[in-house]
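ARCHIVE CARD
CATEGORY: sequence design from structure
SOURCE FIELD: tokenized fold
FIELD CONTENT:
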């Protein structure tokens, strides 16, 4: 795909126009070095027989409503927002800054409403899973996590989801989690609530991110407005590829979830903050892609797709609704997290 930040330093020389993604930058520098808690009125909490688990029933939900499912072990799952059924054109519909992997543009039909988390999964939510399941992440079982220190990316053995090179609170998105870690979390969440949680399909993610829009970003095409909607590499960072047109004052780190304005579906941080894992295997174009909104589970399944961009993103257009990246399922970095989807059955 076309990550053009190199043009900023190399001019318009054609050999530099492809560029690389910010996920790859971490690896490259390493190589070179060697309504949040309350149920909305009218939503009934039904007890699932024999399980001691409560879930929110599908027939009590309407698009735009938010809810949380109860965990059998106590507490609640992430805040979820109901997304309506509908049809949309997926891919680079804006015709601007397109990559070959964002084509061909194709129509996708989402036949049933579904729910997606209002925010990226937080440290607090992930920490509850780790504590209750006794889970050790890929970073903890391996060589740590890729982080940005000074002017380079390094694989730091001590870095993990609760020990980063920048301060985080419990309401920051969890990072340094692999695709395998994200899948383990949704399996635990499904077991603990008695309903089906999963990672979003790539089509569900883009449908939710666009929230009816056909522009580069859900709010339009103006990159000077990104600081209202997205934590990204802006003037408050020292990153050489920063967006010079605005500053949010956050700097080179994650922001608390919900710090930026939501899209029309009420979802926050669909642009920026952290890259988000989705369910799909990697394919380098949309030729043969499902048209029903389901995950594409053939292709290069050793690599899974990332969406949304991050605080570290190499150029503003990496945050576009159509933009795609991928990396190995075991990869983890300080700019990589996830959000969850829930099937609205039973």
């Amino acid at each position: 795909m076309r990550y053009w930040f190199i043009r900023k330093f190399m001019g318009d020389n054609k050999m530099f126009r492809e560029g690389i993604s910010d996920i790859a930058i971490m690896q490259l520098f390493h190589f070179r070095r060697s309504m949040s808690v309350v149920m909305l009125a009218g939503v009934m909490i039904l007890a699932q027989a024999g399980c001691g688990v409560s879930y929110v029933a599908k027939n009590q939900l309407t698009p735009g409503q938010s809810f949380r499912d109860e965990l059998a072990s106590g507490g609640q799952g992430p805040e979820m927002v109901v997304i309506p059924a509908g049809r949309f054109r997926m891919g680079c519909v804006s015709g601007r800054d397109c990559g070959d992997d964002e084509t061909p543009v194709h129509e996708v039909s989402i036949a049933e409403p579904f729910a997606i988390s209002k925010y990226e999964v937080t440290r607090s939510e992930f920490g509850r899973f780790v504590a209750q399941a006794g889970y050790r992440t890929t970073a903890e079982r391996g060589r740590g996590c890729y982080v940005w220190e000074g002017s380079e990316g390094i694989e730091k053995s001590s870095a993990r989801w609760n020990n980063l090179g920048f301060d985080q609170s419990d309401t920051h998105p969890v990072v340094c989690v692999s695709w395998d870690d994200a899948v383990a979390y949704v399996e635990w969440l499904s077991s603990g609530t008695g309903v089906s949680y999963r990672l979003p399909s790539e089509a569900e993610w883009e449908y939710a991110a666009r929230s009816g829009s056909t522009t580069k970003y859900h709010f339009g095409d103006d990159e000077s407005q990104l600081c209202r909607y997205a934590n990204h590499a802006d003037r408050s960072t020292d990153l050489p590829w920063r967006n010079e047109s605005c500053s949010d004052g956050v700097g080179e780190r994650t922001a608390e979830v919900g710090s930026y304005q939501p899209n029309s579906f009420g979802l926050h941080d669909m642009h920026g903050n952290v890259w988000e894992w989705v369910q799909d295997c990697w394919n380098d174009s949309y030729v043969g892609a499902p048209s029903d909104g389901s995950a594409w589970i053939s292709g290069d399944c050793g690599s899974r797709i990332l969406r949304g961009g991050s605080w570290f993103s190499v150029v503003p257009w990496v945050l576009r609704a159509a933009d795609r990246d991928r990396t190995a399922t075991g990869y983890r970095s300080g700019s990589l997290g996830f959000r969850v989807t829930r099937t609205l059955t039973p």
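CARD ANNOTATION: Residues 7-34+86-188+203-343 form a domain with the paralog of FGE (formylglycine-generating enzyme) fold (CATH 3.90.1580.10). The two ends are 39 Å apart (CA to CA).
SHELF: design records, drawer C
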